[in-house]
Amino acid sequence: MFWRYGLFFSILSGGIWGIFWQIFFTVIGILTLGIPLSLEISQIMIIGPLAGILYIISQKFLSIKFHISAIIIITFLIFISHLGNPYQVEDENRLIIFMLILLTSFFIWVSLNHSLYNLSPGKLSKYDIESFFIKFLWGLGLIILILITLIPFYIMIMTSLKNQQSLILNPLDLSVNLNTDFKTLFNSYIELFTNFNFHLFLINSFIVSCTTVIITLFFSIPGAYALARLRIPNKKIFSGTVILIYLIPSIVLIIPLYAIFSYIGLRNSLFGLILVYPATTIPVALYMLRGYFSALSSEIDDAALMDGLSRIQIILKIAIPLSKPAIVSVGLYVFMIAWNEFLIAFMFLDDPSIFTLSRGIMSLNSSEIPQQHLMAGAVIATIPVMIIFIYLEKFLISGLSAGGVKG
């Protein structure tokens, strides 16, 4: 069967990678230049498989010079296929289009190198076929996941740097003129803080989120340790059902909570959010930390008890230091839940001076406020979480308890 040969997989891989990167960089060109560009799918369906055949046949001769030569050949073929493009391109944009074609060729060749490396053009074994599909699907899935994450963020940032006139004239043009002065370029961000008091939203969200993390960890750490270490009646049943509280949709609880908090006067206040948020995050934090505490060696606790330490001292001096990665992970997870929560904040808060970020951004979503201000608010809401995650990433490792007890 022909499909058992490496040559078939080189044609398949080249065709798929060619179409994928052609579509991707054509979309990038449309968003960057703001002009319609043709996809040229029929041409790339020929060029891609040819590149795949070229790679798999010439693997024995691959070198830096050959890689460069192959990319130049693919670039030339794609460039030739674009000569019949019916859309007129201004002279200043021709260099950008050429760079997009060059990037398309480069990524096609890199993708082929990942998928077809050490694959012979002849008949393949079952292991070789499985290895090809694993590498191909893993690479394609990873790239798609990255693009799904980055493209909306790119559009969000570019839109926040535009002015209202340019967005109305050409919504597809997401390029930015870097020659403009700082005040004009970041005008949307400046107006958010000067005209819409966006700094209050940041402060309120920071207070609510940090307080939620502190309260959640204060109750979940000893609770998780008790479930993992102490003998409690029906402990397994309780451990399995505690997560059910987290599975209850917030929309089911919002109406009774709204009625109760309105009655006791806590509805339009940050204190009300600080009471509600930990109630939704403690169960999942308890469930996550219990699993980590259970993995710690019980011999450490036995040795500490023999040395005269109490359970509280064991938690503070032994369990917490050894469980720092898990505690940081849970704390970051809880912080993100509180930082991004919208439904409860939308129902509870009416006073703009105590809006959280999600509630404040929602208030910007109106016909009276330009779209770029809304996108600027979304960018500002995303950046703190990214900074905190990057800073705490070094703590998100496991195995700090390894070697704690000599076996």
Structural class: mainly alpha
CATH class of the largest domain: Mainly Alpha
**Fold-level CATH name of the largest domain:** MetI-like fold
Sequence of secondary-structure elements: HHHHHHHHHHHHHHHHHH
Put simply, the count of helices is: 18
CATH architecture of the largest domain: Orthogonal Bundle
CA gyration radius, whole angstroms = 28 Å
Number of domains: 2
Low-pLDDT stretches: 398-407
Estimate percent helicity.
over 70%
Q: Which features does this protein show?
A:
407 residues; mainly alpha; MetI-like fold; 2 domains; 74% helix; disordered C terminus
Description:
Helix 1 runs parallel beside helix 5 (126-160) and helix 9 packs parallel to helix 12 (270-295). The model is unreliable at 398-407 (pLDDT under 50). This protein is 74% helix and 0% strand. With 407 residues, the chain is an all-alpha fold. It has helices at residues 6-33, 41-57, 64-81, 91-116, 126-160, 164-169, 182-185, 187-195, 198-229, 235-247, 250-264, 270-295, 298-306, 311-322, 324-340, 343-348, 357-364, 371-392. The chain folds into two domains: 2-169, no CATH class; 190-395, MetI-like fold (Orthogonal Bundle). The longest helix is centred in the middle third of the chain and has 35 residues, at 126-160.
